[in-house]
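User: My instructor asked us to take a sequence, write out its structure as tokens, and then describe one feature of it. I'm not sure where to start. Here is the sequence I was given:
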Amino acid sequence: MICDILKIFSQNVQKNSLIVNTILENQTSFDIVFIQESPWSTICTVPSSTSCKGEELVGVPHHPNWLTFARSLVNQLDSPRVLTYINICTSHLRFSL
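Assistant: Let's start with the prediction itself. The structure tokens for your sequence are:
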């Protein structure tokens, strides 16, 4: 059965993006990683048609070897409590949220 071979890792990172990046770089033996209290911060400023200064792009850390899943946000002040990162090696299983 497929559930017998999936390896899952869960960690509370207390909104520290350095810990998230370290986990995503080094946890190659796991298929699914759950991150609790994920960092939700400004990634960069993107051009805007309504503001000369641009608009802030807010989100979570991403990594090219991991697919990121989170619940949809209710409003802009809301942030996900848990993020799910799925290793791209398991993408043939077609995970969906």
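For the description part of your assignment, you could build on this observation: The chain is about 10% helix and 30% strand. Try explaining in your own words what that tells you about the chain.
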